[in-house]
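dude i think i finally got it to work??
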Amino acid sequence: MNDSIGSAAGASVKKSLPDQFSAIWDGSDSPPDVFCFLEAHTEATARERANVLLIDQFWRWRSKVELPVEKYFETCPDVGSPG
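look at this
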């Protein structure tokens, strides 16, 4: 296999929304606003939105910065609906 083809193909791959948000958390001194992030990505599916919220929960747990789970469902009710 030609490694240059594999690396060239990998270079053009866009990061997923959860990966993008995780990178923001990783580079921040304070919690980024997950709801503003999602508002800026209106094209995101409910599954992508849910995954971003899970990333936010993970980083908040790790950083000991609480946000009640109810806030996620109040602000993003679509992530709690089936389908």
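The two ends are 40 Å apart (CA to CA).
im so relieved honestly
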